[in-house]
């Protein structure tokens, strides 16, 4: 909930370069909440210059060590990730921190590669227009 002096969730969604949405595979309610967050991320970026394409999103099913208490199947998580065009993995943060580090590294690599793609883009419209005007009016040609 928004608190005085803090950003709202909508504001936070606009400045973030990446998202890691974590749910508990042994808790169906946490999966429903993750689904709602993915929807909210997608909706908040639709109107803001295709940022969803530029944002790295990873859906993570945690507590893989509690498979005997599983309420959310791997295939459900995979389908949700595919529907939202994001990465997916299941892991156990309690047992294998290497998996958590690997997942964070993958998200960070995606974010940095998105920045490299942004750097290769053509100049903004105002820079292009300035160059065009300079080319047309900047150099006087001698009439033939």
UniProtKB/TrEMBL annotation:
Annotated gene: Rergl
A GO term, aspect molecular function: GTP binding
Keyword vocabulary terms for this entry: GTP-binding, Hydrolase, Nucleotide-binding
PROSITE patterns named among the record's database cross-references: RAB, RAS
Family membership noted in the UniProt record: Belongs to the small GTPase superfamily. Ras family.
SUPFAM superfamilies, per database record: P-loop containing nucleoside triphosphate hydrolases
Catalysed transformations (reactions): GTP + H2O = GDP + phosphate + H(+)
EC number: 3.6.5.2
Broad class of enzyme this protein falls into: hydrolase
Keyword Cell membrane among record annotations: no
Name of the protein described by the UniProt record: small monomeric GTPase
